[in-house]
Design a protein that fits this description.
Elements lengths: L11 E3 L5 E6 L2 E4 L16 E2 L6 E2 L9 H6 L5 H4 L14 H7 L4 E7 L3 E7 L5 H5 L4 E8 L2 H11 L10
This protein binds zinc ion.
Zinc ion binds next to helix 1.
């Protein structure tokens, strides 16, 4: 049986019918759709590496960071989980260069049906990846905003009427 070893990363997806999934492990890419119905074995080597800096960490924070990166990296800033807290438009960010690309860029507020009707926020370039990741069967763009914070404020308001959570 073929064995692949390495750092496991988030699966890549391609919009198709059905959606194509690719598992990224070390230098290898594995087409997961070809494995549907087949026997596979996954073994964790017991080691966690930080997604940002690659250092070994005993514990993973906020979906894959070591503690220093969780504390300092722009990818782990509070506004990633709560866009309404983003202050990049005021010139406040952990890394302004990163935020120019990632926060001060067009964002969409979307409505999607996954486990239930939900509202969410995503950067324009993450459509439809974000929806696929959440297993949405349908989604619409509800509003387009020039930055992350404004999309977050609209989402906060819509949360009165619908969930912002996906039941994984
Ligand atoms: Zn790190």
């Amino acid at each position: 049986m073929e064995t692949k070893k390495g750092l496991l990363r988030k699966m890549s997806t391609k919009l198709d019918t059905p959606v194509e999934y690719q598992l990224n492990i070390g230098e290898s890419q594995i087409a997961m759709n070809e494995l549907i119905g087949k026997f596979i074995r996954i073994e964790w080597a017991g080691v966690i590496h930080c997604l940002k800096c690659g250092t070994k960490t005993v514990k993973s924070f906020s979906q894959g960071f070591c503690y220093p990166c969780f504390r300092d990296a722009p990818e782990a800033a509070p506004c990633i989980m709560r866009p309404e807290l983003c202050e990049a438009h005021l010139g406040n960010a952990r890394d302004m260069e990163w935020s120019k690309e990632n926060c001060l860029a067009p964002h969409y507020v979307y409505l999607a049906i996954s486990s239930n009707l939900k509202v969410g926020v995503t950067r324009h370039s993450q459509v439809p990846t974000r929806w696929i990741d959440q297993g949405a069967s349908r989604a619409i763009k509800f509003a387009r905003t020039p930055n992350r914070q404004l999309a977050g404020l609209i989402e906060v308001d819509l949360k009165q009427y619908m969930s912002d959570k996906t039941s994984w």
